[in-house]
Amino acid sequence: MKRLRKFIEKNISGKKVLGLFILTNLVYAFMLTVTIPKTMEFSNGMKLLDMMPTGYDLNYVNELFTSLGENGRLTYLTNQIPVDMIYPLLFGLSYCLLLGYFLKKLNKLNSNYIYLCVIPIIAGIADYLENIGIITMLKNYPELKETAVYTTNIFSVIKSISTSIFFIALIAILITLGIKVLNRKKSDNTV
C-alpha cells in the first residue's frame, strides 16, 4: 500500500488528474457513440456482453453471437474490443488518481481511505479479464464452453460491482468535500 500511496501522491496534480479524466471519458464516449453502436447494428437489439452488468449465461452468449453473424462477431473483435483494451487502463489509473486527489483535499490520503483507490483498479483488471474471455469466446464460436462463459460472466459482474462501488465512494467523497468547503465558508463569514 505504501507504493500505491507514493504513486498517487506523485501523480495527483490537478492538471494530470484532469487530463487523464478527460482522456478516459473521451475514449468512453467514443465507445458509446461509435464502436458499441457499430457492433450492435448486427445484434438485433441484444446487448453486448460488456454492457450487461448483471451477467449472462451460455444461452444468451449463443443467441447473441448467432444474432451478430460473422460480420458482427468480426466487428466486435476488431472494433469494440481493441478500444476496450485501452479503456480499462485509463479507467483504473484515472479514477484511482481522482479518488486520491479528493482524499488529499480531505486530508484522508494517509488513512485507510487509501484502499478506496484500489476499487477502480480492480474494475480495470476485471474488465481486461472480461475482454480476454470475450475474445476467446468470439474466436472459438460456435464451440462455446460453459466454463468460458461462466468465468467471463464472473469478471463482467465483478467489473460492474466494483464500478458501482467506486461511483458510490466518489459521490460520498464529493459530498463530504462539499460539506467541508461550505463549513469553511460559513466559519470565514462569521469571523
TrEMBL record:
Domain of life per record: Bacteria
UniProtKB keywords: Membrane, Transmembrane, Transmembrane helix
Chain ranges passing through the membrane: 20-40, 85-103, 115-138, 158-179
Name assigned to this protein: Uncharacterized protein
Species for this entry: Winogradskyella pelagia
